[in-house]
Amino acid sequence: MKTMTCKQLGGACDMQFHANTFEEMAEQSKKHGMEMFKAGNKEHLEAMNKMQELMKSQDAMAKWFENKKKEFEALPKSKN
After folding, report:
1. Cα separation of 28 and 61, whole Å?
2. Low-confidence ranges of the chain (pLDDT < 70)
């Protein structure tokens, strides 16, 4: 199991996510983002706007995703 924070995944806080795969990690981050969106959290809304800009370019989004996946794979296993 590995750990990444919301900020490491493009978000706005230090909430930690724990997962065995990057896909699981991304899903947890997405769920957290939706919760913050529903709550109207200003910092997370700003981070989401930046991600939406990135998503306008399929190449840029694919590169971002690939880099985050490499970052995840390079992390040491958590002690959880």
Report:
1. 18
2. 79-80
